[in-house]
Design brief:
By secondary structure, this protein is of the alpha+beta class. Helix content is about 20%, strand content about 25%. The radius of gyration is 22 Å and the shape is globular. The N terminus is likely disordered.
Length: about 500
């Protein structure tokens, strides 16, 4: 519900409220407070963002960083805490303010600010901004989730944005789309060989956040994010680093790296309090509802998975142990949570937003079987359990959204992938990368005809998937560019696929 009260009232109340909450949740920062901050440069150089929409609120994010790439990882900020003011309005000119307050920015969290605004109205656009030390941030736009009967949802699926120097052609066009949400399924950053400390990860995140195109997308739509591997380390699995003499594979060292990576991730993204990491642990799987239309289960298939059986790239002979039901992609607790959520859901569409390809894919066109063991093919027993659950519980219109593989796919998820005549249980849309390359394109392309449940594949283009969801139909438009770092080229639609409600599997969209 909106409250019309004076600015003084709002600031007074909010300052008290957030202060008390913050003290209870995080412990009071030991750093001395900075009463009148003076910045060496514009402190909102990393832009702002919003995320995890609910019907009555969103998370607002910024990070004070006048010198974003400073060597010590402090972003040019002193070791002092300070308060940042924020406001939310109905209009871009901030004439009709609906919420305002102050939030702490503390050095322990890289002077990031996470504000969980509540009391807004469902399915509505809002504008927001921050003020610190007399400096005003750019204006962000966001949108709450709808509640109850919902006719339509438009969102973009994004992933894999390897640094290409600043411009991101895909985000440039995306920022001009009419969307309610962006779902990002990971590889938001790519670690380097020497990325190890909190300062290293902060500087890396800050570098990505200096992209004007990424900032534009964040300023326009709320994001729902989950990580994949490169936010931490290539193909990490639970507490296991990559083998073969990686320095981080020393006992205990990988968990330290994981803690640093998790914290920097939290500091740079619009996440709620339950997602704040506790050392090397961070609860990232969570659910979101878009009225009665769509239910999103956002998964973390890295933190709890069994270690990969094989690292052959892009694929190697299938290890028979992949069928072992004790091997897990999600961990037992997340799987239980997911199944309970799916069983309870009354939404028209049930969406799994996650990392690696679920569909079976055999790279060997002969009698043998060759798979990528990092993807669900390496966890076939767990995949069987998921698909059998979806079938047995009659989950309404299941759709899987996937990233990781830097290429566009449309897959039917089958009861038996080796039998093209078997029932199609769900549909998988694999979004291509925002910018990361796909040197394994040929290896996939030559095997597509031997995998008839793969309806479409393209490894040439970068981009994102624009999804339009109505009660009757899901449409995925593959929006692509040819040069990832050339923001002058607008994205175009490469192909469009649809799923009719009640009929799993994709068909070419008319
Ligand atoms: Fe990637």
């Amino acid at each position: 519900m909106m409250r019309q009260v004076s600015r003084r009232q709002l600031l007074g109340e909010a300052a008290l409220g957030t202060g008390a909450l913050w003290a209870a949740a995080a412990g009071v920062s030991q750093a001395p407070a900075l009463a009148r901050p003076r910045f060496t440069a514009y402190p909102f150089a990393l832009g702002l963002a919003s995320g995890d929409p609910r019907p009555t609120g969103v998370v607002l994010w910024t990070r004070l960083a006048p010198d974003p790439l400073a060597d010590d990882g402090h972003g040019g900020m002193p070791e002092r805490r300070l308060a940042v003011s924020w406001e939310v309005a109905d209009d871009e000119a901030f004439r009709r303010r609906v919420a305002a307050g102050r939030s702490p920015a503390v050095p322990e969290l890289g002077h990031s600010v996470h504000v969980e605004v509540d009391g807004l109205e469902p399915g509505r656009e809002y504008f927001f901004r921050f003020v610190a030390g007399g400096e005003v941030s750019p204006v962000g736009r966001t949108r709450t989730a709808p509640s109850g009967p919902t006719d339509q949802l438009r969102f973009a699926l994004a992933s894999c944005q390897a640094w290409v120097g600043g411009p991101y052609a895909a985000y440039r066009t995306m920022a001009e789309e009419d969307l309610e949400l962006v779902v990002h399924v990971g590889d938001y950053i790519y670690e380097a060989r020497n990325t190890e400390s909190l300062a290293d990860f902060r500087i890396l995140h800050a570098r990505y956040k200096t992209s004007p195109d990424l900032q534009a997308a964040h300023a326009r739509f709320p994001f729902v994010v989950t990580w994949d591997d490169h936010e931490i380390e290539n193909n990490w699995a639970a507490d296991a680093s990559q083998p073969d003499g990686e320095p981080s594979n020393e006992p205990g060292r990988f968990l330290q790296l994981r803690a640093a990576a998790f914290q920097a991730y939290y500091e740079h993204l619009p996440l709620r309090r339950p997602q704040r990491p506790k050392g090397p642990d961070m609860l990232l799987y969570r659910g979101l509802s878009y009225g009665d239309l769509a239910d999103f289960s956002v998964l973390d298939t890295r933190q709890y998975r069994s270690d990969q059986l094989d690292d052959a790239f892009p694929a190697g002979p299938r290890d028979p142990r992949t069928d072992d039901p004790y091997r897990t992609m999600t961990g037992a607790a997340q799987e239980r949570w997911l199944f309970e959520r799916l069983a309870r859901s009354r939404a028209r569409w049930n969406v799994l937003a996650q990392q690696t390809i679920v569909a079976q894919f055999d790279y060997d066109t002969g009698p043998g079987a060759s798979v990528n063991h990092d993807q669900w093919d390496g966890y076939a027993g767990a995949r069987d359990r998921l698909l059998e659950f979806i079938a047995a519980s009659r989950v309404a219109n299941p759709v899987v959204l996937t990233g990781d593989w830097h290429s566009s796919w449309v897959n039917d998820l089958k009861a038996d992938f080796d039998d093209p005549a078997s029932t199609t249980l769900a549909t998988e849309f694999v979004g291509t990368s925002i910018s990361s390359g796909c040197p394994w394109e040929r290896a996939v392309a030559q095997a597509v005809p031997a995998n008839p449940h793969v309806k479409f594949f393209d490894g040439t283009h970068r981009g994102y998937v624009r999804c339009t969801v109505t009660p009757e139909r899901w449409t995925s438009d593959y929006r692509v560019v040819t040069a990832a770092a050339d923001s002058s080229e607008p994205a175009r639609t490469l192909t469009s696929w649809a799923v009719e409600a009640g009929r799993p599997g994709a068909v070419p969209a008319a």
